[in-house]
């Protein structure tokens, strides 16, 4: 697995597939790039997929300093450059959507097309979002409650009932308040990419989720409105659309990325 140094950070990234085009998948808050693993077979026929583990993820190493969206965006762009396969298509989910958008704005020469799923501009634009992130942070000393809150807000009620108790409990155990995850949530709470958005030049698809209790869909619609010329798609799911509607999500992403 290649590992690059970006400032004080050591950032590993996986390379999966050997397709002619390049796709970078940017993870959201939490453990790291493993969140994309169930989708990889849907892309590797066409793409060489790069999966960076950014600062705050379990696999990355850094100085533990407060994170900024510019720091993580620089790590994404450094991975594209290190792989020598740019410009790349970049897909980000949740915090990864915000980071991917910032990466496209800061280095438009490296991003061919952009997909931002379940992202936002700033928590200061929505009191629900601001209080939700604060609540998440306040549960750091109670791992069980932390995992349950993360699960409750990540998925729609219908999806939780469909997958059943064993799967639900497994998910609550997956999302734990590690120091890196808490750094991600602090970033979720404090970031503001409004000044970067005019710099996005890549054709962009923004994806929202109507039942999203983590990032209410109005925030994602606002992101779409702020990116000039962007397209928009919406799924009737909770926050983690790639789990609830995996096939439809990957088809929508592929259709956009391969459009003439």
Description:
With 260 residues, this protein is of the alpha/beta class. The chain has one domain: Rossmann fold, CATH 3.40.50. The protein is built from nine helices and eight strands. The protein has helices at residues 69-83, 95-106, 127-138, 143-154, 157-174, 179-190, 217-226, 241-244, 246-257; strands at residues 3-6, 9-16, 21-26, 47-52, 88-93, 111-117, 204-209, 231-235. Strands 1-2-4-3-5-6-7-8 form an eight-stranded mixed β-sheet, with helices on both faces. The protein is globular and about 45 Å long. The model has no long low-confidence stretch (mean pLDDT 97). Residues 22-245 form the AB hydrolase-1 domain. Pfam families: Abhydrolase_1. This is Alpha/beta hydrolase. Keywords: Hydrolase.
């Amino acid at each position: 697995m290649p590992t690059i140094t970006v400032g004080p950070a050591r950032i590993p990234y996986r390379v999966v597939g050997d397709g002619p085009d390049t796709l970078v998948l940017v993870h959201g808050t939490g453990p790291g790039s493993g969140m994309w693993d169930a989708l990889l077979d849907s892309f590797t026929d066409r793409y060489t997929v790069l999966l960076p583990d950014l600062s705050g993820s379990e696999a990355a190493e850094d100085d533990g300093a407060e994170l900024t969206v510019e720091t993580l965006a620089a790590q994404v762009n450094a991975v594209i450059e290190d792989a020598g396969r740019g410009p790349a298509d970049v897909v980000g989910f949740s915090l990864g959507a915000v980071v991917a958008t910032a990466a496209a704005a800061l280095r438009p020469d490296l991003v061919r097309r952009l997909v931002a799923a379940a992202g936002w501009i700033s928590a200061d634009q929505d009191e629900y979002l601001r209080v939700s992130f604060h609540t998440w942070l306040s549960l750091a000393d109670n791992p069980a409650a932390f995992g349950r809150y993360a699960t409750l807000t990540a998925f729609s009620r219908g999806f939780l009932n469909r997958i059943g108790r064993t799967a639900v409990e497994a998910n609550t155990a997956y999302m734990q308040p590690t120091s890196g995850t808490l750094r991600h949530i602090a970033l979720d709470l404090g970031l503001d990419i409004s000044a970067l958005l005019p710099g996005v030049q890549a054709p962009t698809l923004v994806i929202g989720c109507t039942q999203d209790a983590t990032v209410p869909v109005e925030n994602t619609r606002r992101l779409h409105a702020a990116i000039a010329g962007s397209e928009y798609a919406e799924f009737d799911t909770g926050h983690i659309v790639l789990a609830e509607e995996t096939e439809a999500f990957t088809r929508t992403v592929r259709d956009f990325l391969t459009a003439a």
